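Researcher: Please translate sequence to structure tokens.
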Amino acid sequence: MSTELAERTETIKEIVCDILEIEEDEVTRTSRFKEDHNADSLRAIEILAALEKQFGVVINQNELPRMVNIEGVYKVVAEAAGW
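Model: Translation complete:
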């Protein structure tokens, strides 16, 4: 994993954990927010808004079904940001 990829992934993880109010060591790249961490749809929208602000991108809410874990969120943000 490149340094840039690792840093972006870490930033995404920090945002997600902050909004879901969980410890970072509880989240893996593939643990599912809703099933594993009891996130609801409002939290998902908060995560989306925080990511848009952090990375200066616009993410369509149609992408929310793909944003189920850190890996999915990274892919959506990367596409929006053109990484």
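Researcher: Any highlights?
Model: Helices lie at 3-20, 33-37, 41-55, 70-81.
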